[in-house]
C-alpha cells in the first residue's frame, strides 16, 4: 500500500483542479503518494481538462467520476477508490506550500491519530475589501491555530477545515465516511461535512491533530468578495450547524444552543446593506444571519430526525 492518496474533488472547475493537482503531484512523488481527481457531475469540458492530466503529469495520477452531485458524495468516492493508507483532501482552489504533504503524513506517528490537518491561509485576487474584518475570515476557510502542533477536541477547538485535511483511510471508512446530509451540493454551499466525520472519529476514541507545517493557500474567488455572499455563507453555516448538532448530539443540546450560542445575535436589529458598508455592523449581521439559519435548520431537520441520524455515505 502506498503512503497516501491526495484527493481533489471538483465540480465544473477543471482549470482550478488542474492547478491544485500539479502542485500536489510534485510533493506526492516525494512521499510515495498518488493524486486522485474526482470529477463530481461536471460537464464534458471539465472531464476533458482532467483527463489530460495523467498523460501530462505521468505515473501516480488518476481521474474518476462521481455522478451523484455533492462534495460528500465526491469525497466518499475518493475515499473508496484511494489506494493510500492516508487519504488527504485538498480543495480544488487550494495550493499547498512546500513540505505540506510530508508534514501531514508525519502527524500519523502516534497509533491513535486518525485525522491530521493544517493551516489554511487566504490568497486574494487583489487587496481585500475594507469590510472584510478578521471575524469574517473563517467564512472563506481561513484556519490557523498557531505555531505548535496539538490534539483537537470538540467544544474546545475547531476541527481542521476541509480545504486541508487528511484521514487514516481505514478509520474514515469504518466510521461511514462523509454524510450526504451536510456539505456543498452544487450551488447549495452547506458546510460541516468534515466536522461531522471528525466528531464521529473523536467520539470513537480517535485523535484529531493539528500540524502547523502543513500549510495551503486557499484562493478566494473574486465573485465571493461581496457582503451579500458572506451573509449567505453565514446563513448556510447556521443551517448546517443545526444538521450537524441534531445528527450527533441530544435534541436538548441542539435546543440549548439557541440560547447560549445565538441568543445575543438573535436580539440584534437587522442591518441593511448600504454604501459605505459598516464593517462592525456587517459582522454583527453575519452573526444574526447564522442564528436565523440555525433556527431554520432546526425547523427543517427535527421532523426527519430519525432518518437524519442514519445518513452516512461510505
Question: Could you characterize what this model shows?
Answer:
- With 314 residues, the chain is of the alpha/beta class.
- The protein has two domains: 2-134 and 141-220, Spore Coat Polysaccharide Biosynthesis Protein SpsA, Chain A, CATH 3.90.550; 227-309, no CATH class.
- Helix content is 40%, strand content 18%.
- The strands form two sheets. The chain has an eight-stranded mixed beta sheet with strand order 3-2-1-4-9-6-10-8, sandwiched between helices. Strands 5-11-7 form a three-stranded mixed beta sheet.
- Helix 1 links the parallel strand 1 (2-10) and strand 2 (33-40).
- Helix 1 (14-28) packs parallel to helix 2 (44-51) and helix 8 (227-248) runs parallel beside helix 11 (279-301).
- The longest helix has 23 residues, at 279-301.
- The radius of gyration is 19 Å and the shape is globular.
- 46% of the residues are buried.
Specify Rg, calculated over alpha carbons.
19 Å
Q: What portion of residues belong to β-strands?
A: 15-25%
According to CATH, the homologous superfamily of the largest domain is: Spore Coat Polysaccharide Biosynthesis Protein SpsA, Chain A
Question: Largest sheet, if any?
Answer: 8 strands, mixed
Estimate the global geometry from the Cα principal axes. Answer: globular
CATH topology grouping of the largest domain: Spore Coat Polysaccharide Biosynthesis Protein SpsA, Chain A
Q: How many beta strands in the DSSP annotation? A: 11
- The termini sit apart by 20 Å
CATH class of the largest domain: Alpha Beta
The H/E string reads: EHEHHEHEEHEEEEHHEEHHHHH
Count of the separate structural domains = 2
Structural class: alpha/beta
